[in-house]
Amino acid sequence: MNIRNSIKAIIINGENILLTKNRDHEGDFYLCPGGGQEHSETFHKTLVRECIEEIGREVSIAELLFIREYIGRNHEHSALDFNVHQVEYYFSCQLDEAEEMSFNPSNPDQNQIGIEWVPINDLLHYRLYPKQLRKYIIKQLNGEKTPIYLGDVN
Length: 154
Hints:
Elements: E1 3-13, E2 16-24, E3 27-31, E4 34-36, H1 43-55, E5 59-71, H2 78-81, E6 85-95, E7 112-119, H3 133-141, E8 149-152
Parallel strand pairs: 1-6, 5-8
Antiparallel strand pairs: 1-2, 1-4, 2-3, 2-7, 5-6
């Protein structure tokens, strides 16, 4: 089993977070923009490339907020993800040219149907993956201390 790195952006504007909206057989779900690291690519290059692909915007990257592992065989989607082992790195990011809020993804993910600003205080009502991330983002907004390593959570 290969371990795949995925680099993700947490983009907050006021009390809202920017998420990609996706759809599967269960309905709509949300993800932080970002994706898989390519061979010889740095985390920052990966994140800039993935944000251009998924939200059509460059980002400025700040601090690492969270690290999450996903070992597929341990979670509800194990039938599909049994051999998946992914480590996700979530960075605090800002949009470049923040005054312009238009989005034009160049290469959205297969299930991606849109991009939305979601109120952080309403995150618990959204199907955001990983689910555990919702409570940590809310704590961050409220100035509470959070762990960096979240473990094998979904």
